[in-house]
Amino acid sequence: MAVNYRAPRGTRDILPEEVGLWRHLEETARAIFTRAGYGETRTPIFEDTELFLRSTGEDTDIVEKEMYTLERADGASITLRPEGTPSIARAYIEHDLAKQAPFRKFFYVGPMFRYERPQAGRSRQFHQAGVEAFGSDSPLLDVETIDLAAQFFDAIGLTGYEVRINSIGCAGCRGDFRQLLRSRLESRRSQLCENCQRRFERNVFRILDCKEEGCRGIIVTLPVVADHLCPACAEHWREVQAGLKALGRPYVHDPHLVRGLDYYTRTVYEFVHGGLGARNAVCGGGRYDNLVGELGGAQVGGIGFAVGFEPTIAALSGEAREQATRTGSRAGLDVYVVRASDEARLLTLQLAHELRQAGFASDLDFEGRSLKAQMRSANRLQARFALILGEEELARGTVTVREMATASQESVPRGEVSEWLRRRTAARPGSTS
């Protein structure tokens, strides 16, 4: 009996008809990040599990219940990366990059993995583009990263997003605030969800990130950390807001935004979209001034963000999505070689081969279809020219070249086709011509 294999739950195939959209997002991110001085970095898709335990936080939802962790034969374990920041930080430390140039900018594009309930815009294998910068605690760097994310969304045509920002302070000013939270929550502890009751003992600050409706009703009544910042953090917070205003980037101060990862300090932010429902973030980021030091590296500032491709695509309007797909797809063929007689079969293959070698995007029929069907394929593939080889062309040593947009035709000697095309159209980027 035949077995109907399917992609694992929470994953999906990205077929050729869709790849143009994904390619456009990837190439747009690469172009914007590169222009701002960020260098692409490619890390393994799995790391020692301890890296994520130390960086992401043992009390976070990611570590507690969402990581794909595999045990090795020696008893140690590895984990498919649930996010990109720890891997970039590990690479920064491992290769002594702080000694070469303390301030470094990185970006990445690739898949991440979390065992969460699949839903619209959320998958178990998902894709992100993100930036990380290490070696500076400047609030202007916070502004730059927020602006880069906004540039990306603007460039792909996403409208209706909102930038939410907050400051959660440093370890120093959060100490007193943590005690204040405990005192305010003590009498309402039994009303918290099971996870938050546990967090009350282990990391009360994590309660602020809970998404349970009952907990959210309590959270909005609590003091906000931005009102309890130390002088240095308060000044940093003022400069971030001033920088965004200087760039003309609108934002909303969300006093209850804390993000869900333990390594964040000071500035945190999210880009949200109203069309996505409760889980509405398309981008999240913030500052993590202690991360590199806590992983064994130099004590340097850091900041970064990650854009989620799946929620971003879900948020794109139909028109914007179609435009992005067209932009990322191949712009069409230069030439479709049409066989109008069986005798021209090998010559058709040879001509397509020669044209590709000359740098022209070329295709031909492999299904033995009629002349009319082949011409329909030339139209569907957006070929600029159809090169027709039939009995008359074989006898004369010529090729009939039809310009598809105008239906005008010209007979061209077989040996002069490449030069004729070169005069009429530029070869594609990366051609050998």
Main sheet overview? 8 strands, mixed
Fourth CATH level, the homologous superfamily of the largest domain: Bira Bifunctional Protein, Domain 2
Total strands: 16
The secondary structure category is alpha+beta
Question: What quaternary form is this?
Answer: single chain
Mean pLDDT: 89
Q: What's the total helix number?
A: 17
User: How many domains comprise the coordinates?
Assistant: 2
CATH class (first level) name of the largest domain: Alpha Beta
Unreliable residue stretches: 427-433
End-to-end Cα distance, whole Å, is 52 Å
Secondary-structure map with pairings?
Blueprint: H1 16-35, E1 39-40, E2 46-48, H2 49-55, H3 61-66, E3 69-71, E4 77-80, H4 85-94, H5 97-100, E5 104-113, E6 125-134, H6 139-155, E7 161-167, H7 171-185, H8 194-202, H9 213-219, H10 231-247, E8 252-253, E9 265-273, E10 281-287, H11 291-294, E11 302-308, H12 309-315, H13 318-328, E12 335-339, H14 345-357, E13 362-364, H15 371-380, E14 385-389, H16 391-396, E15 398-403, E16 408-413, H17 417-424
Parallel strand pairs: 1-5, 7-8, 12-13, 12-14
Antiparallel strand pairs: 2-4, 3-4, 5-6, 6-11, 7-9, 9-10, 10-11, 14-15, 15-16
Features:
single chain, 433 residues, alpha+beta, BirA Bifunctional Protein, domain 2, Rossmann fold, five-stranded mixed β-sheet, 39% helix, elongated
